[in-house]
């Protein structure tokens, strides 16, 4: 994508819908032009449950971003999450017909076709896939690049992410109903990783933990390659609901209390037992008096529940002893005070809070450096990295696309959608990234002829 071109990332979350408008600048960086953020009404545990409400919220967030930036938003790059998403690793390969010919792109495409034709569980579809290691005659080639190598058998291990067909279709329908074109989507933890992780961390081994509203996302990287992903439905909303239930507060009061940095802490041992919090709860009734140590102990217990899941995922991934860069925590949940210390004590790994700033240029609004924007900024980064199809031009005047109101018009969206997503292949996405390592076809032919 050329410098100065504009892209849009859309985060359809459990608690908020966030639309980020950015432009590509030097290197791999983007400059944020503006955003629109509205509460999310139709999403639960990371999955779209009410398509109409979600479509209206998407439209509102995009309209807000458009009014701030002067960009007419028509195409979006969207994140996908939810407990229905799972990852698997497959080793696939074949014996080449002409082993005296150097391996080229066409040989690797045959491997990719094997991934596309995997038998999925009923009701599931492949969301994305990425090669981990290539093997030529059971050996990993230099720089993990098989192009230009001579060999008989070509194999690769693939990290494959699958999800529920109906959940994916609900996202597509929501975006279409909002009057937008869904160009492509990718897994939200991979988007967050692009925003907060460095190449060095991914090379040395790191576990990214994104604590959102409805889900906590886990992504493990080693040697610069995604190794394991997982998503489970214990996150910020789980903590809010526990506060609401145990302290008998209305939802808004519980959420406000959780987000108060002077009241909330991931640790409780340092808080005096006689320290009291005063919380305004129900209108017309006196404020509620809460012992802060007890309250923070409740938050601590919720975090233990979340990070027990994280520890289990790390153990099941077989990379437990390969995380030299430790853990990086991001997302809205990472804003809880003392979370870094809690995670280090609970997991035993060195921990950092991941701020989405390393690939941002000319950052005027410092609020975008908060962890709550990690996924939406990451989606904009993925859009900028992947394709020219995410380009927009600035317009002076914008028109809105109203949500269908009558039953006949709304019924159109209930039919299966023939998505306009380009569905870029894995090779299409990575060829530009590894192009400097690849021999072109002419060079290979010249070498073979000699």
Structure notes:
By secondary structure, the protein is of the alpha/beta class. Among the domains are: 77 residues, Dna Ligase, domain 1; 156 residues, ATPase, nucleotide binding domain (Nucleotidyltransferase, domain 5), CATH 3.30.420.40. The chain is 33% helix and 25% strand. The chain has 13 helices and 17 strands. The strands form five sheets. It has a five-stranded mixed β-sheet with strand order 3-2-1-6-10, with helices on both faces. The longest helix has 25 residues. It is globular and about 85 Å long. It starts with 5 loop residues before the first strand and ends with a helix. The relative contact order is 0.17. The C terminus is likely disordered.
Low-pLDDT regions: 389-400, 405-422, 430-448
Q: What is the rounded Rg? A: 24 Å
The third-level CATH topology of the domain at 198-353 is Nucleotidyltransferase, domain 5
Could you give the count of β-strands? 17
Mean pLDDT comes to 87
Mind summarizing the main beta sheet?
5 strands, mixed
Strands of the widest sheet, in order across it, are: 3-2-1-6-10
The CATH superfamily of the domain at 198-353 is identified as ATPase, nucleotide binding domain
CATH architecture assignment name of the domain at 198-353: 2-Layer Sandwich
Separation, N- and C-terminal Cα atoms: 37 Å
